[in-house]
Amino acid sequence: MTHQIKRAAQAVAITCLLVVGGCTSTPTVVDNTPAINPEYLIGPGDNINIIVWRNPEVSMSVPVRPDGKITTPLVEDLPAAGKTSTQLARDIEGALAKFIQQPVVTVVVTNFVGNYNDQIRVIGQATRPQALPYRKDMSLMDVLIAVGGVTEFAAGNRATIIRTIDGKQQKMQVRLDDLIKDGDISANMTMRPGDILVVPESFF
User: Fold this and answer.
1) Are residues 153 and 189 in the same domain?
2) CATH code of 126's domain
3) Is residue 76 part of a domain?
4) pLDDT for 39
5) Quick check: 33 pLDDT over 80?
6) CA-based Rg of the chain, rounded to a whole angstrom?
7) DSSP letters along 25-68, please?
């Protein structure tokens, strides 16, 4: 009976730690990467809502094509990927100025995919391997929640994050099993745009 009580207490403690970990983005694994505060950059696959003041006939929602460009009735093949919504709005205003006197444009991103180089990719034995749009202060726990954790065949404590720093790729060991199964929040860490999380398969 004492053993069962102890196991139950451990389960409750792990659950509490996981709940707290899912709500925090504070890293406890130290890395030397400088902190970043990026603005969201539009990427292929995003949907953007273009609002032209007093000109509803040219206001519309359009997708960003795979080549990173958009097309509207008066603007053809305008590059959008890699720009902020404000930058794109100014570019659209410049293009529309040929047809509309002093156009005022607002761009609202309504579906977030993100710039290709800023996405976080999860490969290997994740439940749902995929590319995720980077979000400010995104943590390793946030990524694991988004992909549904790891499979039963994963070797979580042998997982690595591949990160490009100053043009060079570096590998960082992460302990997914400790984080997910044991609730060890010290295994959590801050993610960076362009990170690749590799979850290998267990040998046995």
Assistant:
1) yes
2) 3.10.560.10
3) yes
4) 85
5) no
6) 22
7) ----S---PPP--PPP---TT-EEEEEETT-GGG-EEEEPPTTS
Contact 117, 167 (CB under 8 A): no
Specify the residue for token string 């509803």.
56
CA 143 to chain centroid: 8
Segments forming the whole domain that contains residue 59? 47-111
Q: Both 158 and 193 in a single domain?
A: yes
Distance of CA 37 to the CA centre of its chain: 13
- Residue 199 DSSP one-character state: E
Count up the domains in the chain and report the number: 2
Tens of pLDDT, residues 116-168: 889 999 999 999 999 999 998 999 999 999 999 999 999 999 999 999 999 99
Is pLDDT of 103 > 70?
yes
Helix (H/G/I), strand (E/B), else coil: 95: helix
CA distance 126 to 158: 13
Kindly give, in sequence order, each residue whose CB lies less than 8 Å from that of residue 189, ignoring residues fewer than 6 positions away: 27, 28, 29, 31, 139, 140, 161, 172, 174
